[in-house]
Amino acid sequence: MSATLRRPPPGPTGLQPGNVAALRRDELGFYTRLKREYGDVVSFRMGPLRMCLVTDPAAVEQILVTRNHEVKKSPFYEAMSRVLGQGLLTSEGEFHKKQRRLVQPIFHHRRIKEYGETMVDYGVRHRDRWREGETLDFHEEMMALTLAVVGKTVFGADVEGDARHVGASLATLLKTLDSLVLFVIFMIGGALADQVEKLPIGVMRRFHAARDELFGIIQRMIDERRGEGATGSDLLSSLLAIEEDGVGMSDEQIRDEAMTIFLAGHETTAVALSWTFCLLSRHPEIAEKLHAELDEVLGDNVPTVEDLPRLDYTRKVLSESMRLFPPAWMIGRQAVRDVELGGFDVREGTILLTPPFLVQRDERWFPEPRRFDPERWVEEEEAKRPRYSYFPFGGGPRLCIGESFAWMEGELLLATIAQRWRPRLEPGYPQGVQPQVTLRPKNGMRMTMAARA
Fold first, then answer.
1. Which residue from 63, 112, 240, 384 has the highest number of Cβ atoms inside 10 Å of its Cβ?
2. How does strand 49-54 pair with strand 351-354?
3. Amino acid 279: pLDDT
4. Which residues in the chain land under pLDDT 50?
5. 277 and 417 in contact (C-beta within 8 Å)?
6. d(CA 371, CA 320)
7. Torsion-angle region of residue 20: left (phi > 0), alpha (psi -120 to 50) or beta?
8. Is residue 453 assigned to a domain?
9. In which domain, by residue range, is 36 found?
């Protein structure tokens, strides 16, 4: 480490017991205040944990890409492993590298294109169910739609009948992790976390019941695919067929990878679409421009993968929505040695927080940052900004493996729904943001369906 830069990042000093309460009240507001008061690299304590909030794009790039060997996944993922097992999102080291090497071919661009028709088919099926003037929880609708898509593409199965069970189970698991005490214990891991997880108390019984429900649904589909010979084009059949040195994945490994893809794959896209239609409802002039593009490019035809290059404004709308409301709103790492970031020295063991939500709302990179403006995504404007001023899918060796899948699904479903409908926000919605694992709309997103003339 440079001898001339031996200085810790600024930030509130001492243990600051009030940090936990402040974060509990308003997590996004807490981080926003730290950035405003102390700058791009901020040190603070959260109980026994030493934290560092990093919002400088160059330092974010160091953490995720150029110096990724000096960090590891944060303890946040230890907590998530209690839900997802040891899949790509939560695993570490050589095991993670091996699993990513095995799974990567499944997400090759040519293969993902095959799923486009399935995405549109389910989009049409859902949009045809809605009725003029009907008021519904649009976020719940998007969760059911993306669950159906990922079920068919990942598992080759129709899981629409499981949507209610999956939604309820996922809500229970997220609510458990929303308990700050439990979350910190699970982050620390070890014997204490194992003991707490085994406690015969209501919250843990509900946690286990919800996880068992999801594991059971996944295992049922694994058994079905294996029984049919696992010869389909779905991702689960591919996982079952994968071998390295003549050895395939264990059922537990397949289950954990499938669980990660199953939940992360539908949750994030549903969140992105919910906020996109919220923003379009608030900005009718942008919705009109989107509809004009859809009419010109598609006419009365449903969208296809081949149409995507011409749906330029559609992509811009989705990009700008994910700038303002990135589904994966916080990305964490932990320093495995002393590291220099943004001119400050950060100690080994510090948890590094890199929030797309804050970086992507920085007025230095995005003037009038709270304004919804898809024109920010013309090439000339993008070229002016630092690379990691926008990173909704992370970066480096842990870049989201399903990024291409997510972009294609998001664009196709946005086009399919907006071609027919113009949902309008009900008064009082959205009621705020709920920063859990993803950036869900608080208490859902009530919208009234209005058919396009």
1. 63
2. parallel
3. 98
4. 1-5
5. yes
6. 10
7. alpha
8. no
9. 3-448
